[in-house]
Every structure is written in C-alpha cells, then in structure tokens.
Amino acid sequence: MQSNKVLDAKGLACPMPIVKTKKAINELNVGDVLEVHATDKGAKADVSAWAKSGGHASLQDTEEDGVLKFWIKKA
Amino acid sequence: MSETKRTTIVLFSGDYDKAMAAYIIANGAAAYDHEVTIFHTFWGLNALRKAEDVTVNKGFLEKMFAKMMPKGADKMGLSKMNMAGMGPKMIKKVMKKHNAMTLPQLIEMAQEQDVKLVACTMTMDLLGLQKEELIDEIEYAGVAAYLGDAEDGNVNLFI
C-alpha cells in the first residue's frame, strides 16, 4: 500500500508509538497516508483508538514476524 | 474535530511506579491532542525536584525533610517491592530491556509535548521545598487553578 511517510516505531514501548505517530501525522497534509511499524503488542488497539479519536481513517493493518503495520489517512 | 479536550491529573504519590503511570497517561493524552495538566502535590512534588544540590535558606525541619525525600524523579522508590532501593534498580534494568522510557525521560517528553506541570505552592511550603529546588519551566499554583483546569476536563485522575 502506498504511503507518504513511514514511521519506524519498532522496539518502542508505550506510550512512545502513539507519541511518535502523533508527531508524524502533524507533519503530513490532509489526505496523506502514514505507515507505522511497531512491535508493542498494545499498538494495534492504541493506534486504532487514537486514529478514531482524531477522525483519521485506519486504512489497513497487517502483522508479520511480530511487526505490526498500520496505514492511517490524515483527516 | 471538536474543541480541545482536557486531561487533568493530580500526582500526590512520590512513588516511582505511580509517577510513571501518571506521566505515561499524560503523554498519551497529549498525543490525543488534549490539554494536559499534572498538578504535583505532597510527595508528588519530588518528581519535580532537581537532581543536583541547590543551596537555599531553610529551617531545621525543612532541611530534615529535604534530606529524607528523594532528590528528583530518578531517586524515587517503588510503591511495592522497594526492598531498600533494590527494587528500583531491578525495575530500571527490566525497563531498559523492554525499551520502556524512564521517569526522567517521560517528564522530559511531557514538557516537550507542552504538558502543563504545576507545583502546589501550599504543600511546597509544608515540605520546605523552594522554587530553586524544582526543575525549570513549571508553573506554581493552588487548588483553585487546578479546579479551573479540571472543571471542564474530560479525564481527571488522582494518583
């Protein structure tokens, strides 16, 4: 999936994946897609809850080899 | 998006683990674009203490308090399994292994995210703490200022 920016949050523990995701999305334009890579097990629930609260669209998420990937479209 | 939401936290505890929980929630709330306030009172003030020695004029009791209380966030003990300081050493090792942020790092991150750190001036007097002994870029206030932030808050915690 195409993205405008990739955020590597692998190895980071709560609350850093969300703090970094927020910072990354601030730097994007409306409609841009941010791709987030994380290994924190809580990241899936965290990222989707955070995106929903901010009105951003969670486009897709995958998990392979313990790496969670998310695609978020900035609202 | 709707108007800005607000998270207010009273940090009463001087325990490392409890302060960590408070600061993790504060950082998370800041990432949620909340306006975040942490009001430090009683033992929670120690999280704002500078690690280095600061020479200030103090009475005997205040000096005793200053000696007995942890000098800064990194020196705080655990609420459980403190084991005379062994517990914090152990947990810091485990935190490093799991790449978790330490309390001083969480405080720095909170300041970076514009979390409002407030020191309660009344309890500063009780514990004999002076402004010079606390970290920079914090605010000083009392209960009314806290309630001003909290009354239209969405999340309010006492830790």
Description:
The complex is a heterodimer of chains A (75) and B (159). Chain A is of the alpha+beta class and 75 residues long. Helix content of chain A is 31%, strand content 35%. In chain A, strands 1-2-4-3 form a 4-stranded mixed beta sheet, with helices on one face. The longest helix of chain A is centred in the middle third of the chain and has 12 residues, at 43-54. Chain B has 159 residues and is α/β, with parallel strands linked by helices. Chain B has one domain: Hypothetical Protein Ychn, Chain: A, CATH 3.40.1260.10. In chain B, strands 4-3-2-1-5 form a 5-stranded parallel beta sheet, with helices on both faces. In chain B, strand 1 (6-11), helix 1 (16-31) and strand 2 (35-40) form a beta-alpha-beta unit. The mean pLDDT of chain B is 95. Chain B: Pfam families: DrsE_2 (PF13686). Chain B: This is Peroxiredoxin family protein. Chain A: This is UPF0033 domain-containing protein. Chain A: Residues 7-31 form the UPF0033 domain.
